[in-house]
Amino acid sequence: MLVVPVLAGAQDAPPARAANPFARFFGEWTLKDDRFQQVWDGKTVETITIPRHHTKCAPVNTDRSVLCVVDTPDLAGHILWVFDDARDHVRHLSHFGTARSGVGVGSLDAASNLRLEVRFSDEPAGSYRIYEYRWVSNDEYSMLSRQYDSAGKPTGNWYGGSFVRLRAVQR
Asked: CA-based, 20 to 30 A from 84: which of 13, 48, 51, 94?
């Protein structure tokens, strides 16, 4: 049984990239202080509380993928990331609620920061989102999703939050 260690402290150096490039995401996560921020009208920042948010990220049955299962009181879903060695990029597939399906592609840097361009079935045709997952420490990352219209112009709509590790996942 392999145990991914829980590392603490903002001063920690990022771990060396493991055989699975998503290993840094493995574990259980929750929203820091239950806070999430969003803008849906291009201008009004709304801070909402999402208690009991829980995400569990674990390897699937390959060394180049991770499946994150997300549960909140009002929304459930999952995200699959697969690293494509031939093209040196990440492929994204997700589904939330009853109608939010996402597909995209992006990159993962040496520190496991992830940047994705994702298109969703329930957003305007041709629009897309840029997701950025940035590590704050080995036990915290921030996620920010910005929306762009079909011409590549920012709409002003975004959402995001910080996520903290609850515990490591065992394999």
From this structure: 13
